[in-house]
From TrEMBL:
Keywords: Signal
Entries under InterPro entries matching the protein: Class_I_gatase-like
Name of the protein in question: Cyanophycinase
GO molecular function: serine-type peptidase activity
Organism per entry: Daphnia pulex (Water flea)
Organism lineage: Eukaryota, Metazoa, Ecdysozoa, Arthropoda, Crustacea
Key word Signal present: yes
Leader peptide range in chain numbering: 1-19
Length: 431
């Protein structure tokens, strides 16, 4: 009796003090990023209460699952590996196990089944990227694209919630925490493969042969964020801004979000009125890209000219209301107007670079922090593979920036957030 009362009391306490939270991880979350891991533990009820289930679409716990389990164990939290395959996803015992958790971490590194060999040749969406070895010391690393499809197909076959996914939703509704790669959490289409260049050129009259075909899953993701936003991860580091923009235009959705690596957007109330707060590692300028394509003319795609793309960038402690698009900056950040530190902007000559990370972000932040109002960057043409050049113009005349040195005692990092910059992206003829 006392035992039952205690459990009831604890779960009420959790509901009242913690609330529903979805942790959108921007990929390559380092196992030593204490701020983000401790945040997840706290949102799952704190070290003493938290019971975290690590869900993967596999027969057994995967490499990434092992890392997640190990990291939570080091923080002194109770953690259980919960691999689910197509039969276990309907299993009452698995459903009950999930319901006992106060937190769920969804792992994308699903099993590489022999069956997917056949899928490679039958599916329209081909896993052109090779799995490779996961990078050391990180979770939510990039896996082969068919693994993302396998995870989504297992938990939400043809866009219908499985019993296990419904159990995960109820953990969230009871006031628990659900975390995982940001890119799979929305209900809007989920990007499966391709980079900014291949997405920009797909279906246009500009002849090209990019190596990694652009594709996305129309049925959407796990729908744990109940709002029409296309979401991407590894955003700045892999230059994915245009890939997000193109997915929005293809799927007639106006707003998108991209989370940087080793960064999280912690979303409170994700199923009703979501508000997200940016959480990063110590001393870094990374954050969240926000884009709105409602002003982009309809003819853009065939002409491969995308004008009036309005974008923003949010850094640590900024919070974003997903419904209104309003942002609240912490009081330690100051309005930038008149405080710009540099005379001129610095354009990038490889704005979507896969080699030099975060060119788009760097160029935009520098523009905010100088006396010029626009900057013209390029993406170089190439012969093998055949890819045309691209020009990207940023204009900050409508933008408002907030910036400050981080309020820590060691990093001296100057972080810049802004809202309302406009971009125009134009593909150039090859010959
Ligand atoms: C699912 O995984 C379990 C082990 O966790 C295994 O016994 C079972 O055969 C698997 N089912 C399928 C359909 O692969
Ligand atoms: C799981 O349940 C769904 C309906 O909820 C059903 O369509 C599917 O065939 C079941 N899968 C297995 C492997 O029993
Ligand atoms: C796009 O969405 C808007 C509003 O959501 C709708 O009015 C319009 O018909 C849609 N267009 C297409 C081509 O689906
Ligand atoms: C960029 O700004 C300059 C003035 O600073 C202006 O003369 C020029 O027209 C602008 N270019 C574009 C493409 O808006
Ligand atoms: C910075 O140092 C001061 C004085 O040593 C200390 O009071 C404060 O808590 C420190 N702030 C942080 C964020 O570490």
């Amino acid at each position: 009796m006392i035992y039952i009362t205690l459990i009831t009391f604890t779960s009420w306490l959790l509901t009242l003090t913690v609330g529903q939270n979805l942790v959108l991880i921007g990929g390559n979350l380092r196992v030593d990023n204490a701020i983000v891991w401790e945040k997840m533990v706290k949102l799952a009820g704190g070290q003493d209460v938290a019971r975290i289930g690590v869900v993967s679409a596999s027969d057994d716990v995967t490499t990434e699952g092992d890392r997640v389990i190990g990291t939570f164990l080091r923080l002194g939290v109770k953690v259980t590996g919960i691999p689910v395959n197509e039969s276990r996803v309907n299993d009452t015992a698995v459903v009950n196990l999930i319901m006992q958790q106060t937190g769920i971490f969804i792992v994308e590194d699903s099993e590489d089944k022999p069956a997917s060999f056949w899928n490679r040749f039958t599916s329209l969406i081909r896993p052109t990227d090779s799995p490779g070895e996961p990078s050391m010391g990180v979770v939510c690393y990039e896996t082969a694209s068919y693994k993302r499809q396998n995870l989504l197909e297992t938990l939400r076959p043809s866009g219908v919630d499985s019993p296990v996914l419904r159990a995960i939703q109820s953990v969230l509704k009871k006031g628990g925490m659900v975390a995982g790669n940001a890119a799979i959490m929305g209900k809007a289409p989920v990007i499966i493969s391709g980079d900014s260049i291949s997405s920009l050129l797909a279906g246009t009259r500009f002849f090209s042969s990019p190596r990694d075909q652009f594709s996305f899953r129309k049925e959407g993701g796990l729908a744990l964020l109940n709002m029409e936003y296309v979401i991407d991860s590894h955003l700045s580091e892999k230059g994915r801004e245009v890939r997000t923009i193109r997915t929005l235009l293809e799927s007639n959705i106006t707003r998108g979000i991209g989370v940087d690596e080793n960064t999280a957007l912690v979303v409170n109330n994700p199923l009703a009125m979501p508000v997200g707060k940016v959480v990063t590692a110590l001393g870094v300028i990374s954050g969240v890209f926000y884009v709105d394509v409602s002003m982009v003319p309809a003819v853009s795609m065939t002409n491969a000219l995308y004008e009036n793309v309005i974008f923003s960038f949010f850094t640590v402690d900024d919070s974003l209301d997903f419904t209104s698009g309003k942002v609240v900056y912490p009081s330690w950040k100051k309005r930038m107007f008149g405080l710009e530190q540099f005379k001129s902007a610095v354009p990038s000559d490889d704005i979507f670079s896969l080699v030099w990370p975060s060119q788009w972000r760097q160029t935009a932040l520098r523009l905010m922090n100088c006396n010029e109002m626009n900057v013209t960057s390029h993406s170089p043409a190439s012969i093998v593979p055949l890819v045309p050049g691209v020009t990207v113009v940023f204009d900050r005349s409508g933008a408002v920036g907030f910036a400050a040195h981080l309020p820590d005692n060691f990093s001296n990092t100057y972080v810049i957030s802004f809202q309302g910059m406009s971009a125009s992206v134009k593909v150039l003829r090859i010959l």
